[in-house]
């Protein structure tokens, strides 16, 4: 068993990302009955965050930024690069989370710092390619509020494929 603590001792684990929840479930750290409620709450959080951004941002600035919706691919030719970037960046993030916070043998108190640094490195490395979303809930909220759905599926497929990949590798 990968977890040395019972599920009740882990609490929520701070899951803000549906891909993280999927990977944690694959590793046995989340009961299957909680997976869908976690995803729904994460999506609601993304929508609330985007709604708050819309409420405080001047309307012309919000519109110019498409409400914060990731505008990664603008043409079909960019899809392989964007999808590849999301898979790779999400895989690094999920490996850090799963190995640093979930796996009982490699868990470390530095997991939150490592996770934050990994997100920062991912944004710096892949921001220009895909927007470095790495989180379907973060893509969903702004897309819904701004009604900007161009190639939105890559921000779901990439991180979820990464979760399946990392779940299989760590397990």
UniProtKB/TrEMBL annotation:
Annotated GO MF terms: water channel activity
Membrane topology: Multi-pass membrane protein
Key words of the record: Membrane, Repeat, Transmembrane, Transmembrane helix, Transport
Transmembrane segments: 81-103, 110-132, 152-170
Chief location bin: membrane
Gene Ontology cellular component list: cytoplasm; endomembrane system; plasma membrane
Biological process according to GO: one-carbon compound transport
Pfam families: MIP (PF00230)
Compartments where found: Endomembrane system
Family matches, as PANTHER family: AQUAPORIN-8
Family label: Belongs to the MIP/aquaporin (TC 1.A.8) family.
Protein name: AQP8 protein
């Amino acid at each position: 068993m990968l977890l040395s603590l019972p599920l009740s001792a882990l609490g929520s684990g701070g899951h803000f990302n549906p891909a993280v929840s999927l990977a944690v479930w694959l590793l046995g750290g989340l009961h299957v009955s909680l997976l869908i409620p976690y995803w729904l709450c994460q999506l609601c959080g993304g929508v609330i965050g985007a709604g708050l951004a819309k409420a405080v941002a001047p309307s012309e600035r919000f519109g110019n930024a498409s409400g914060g919706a990731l505008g990664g691919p603008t043409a079909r030719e960019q899809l392989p690069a964007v999808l590849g970037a999301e898979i790779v960046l999400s895989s690094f993030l999920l490996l850090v989370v799963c190995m640093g916070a979930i796996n009982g043998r490699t868990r470390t108190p530095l997991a939150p710092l490592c996770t934050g640094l990994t997100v920062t490195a991912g944004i710096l490395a892949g921001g220009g390619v895909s927007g470095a979303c790495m989180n379907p809930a973060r893509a969903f909220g702004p897309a819904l509020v701004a009604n900007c759905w161009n190639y939105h599926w890559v921000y779901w497929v990439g991180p979820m494929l990464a979760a399946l990949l990392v779940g299989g590798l760590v397990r």
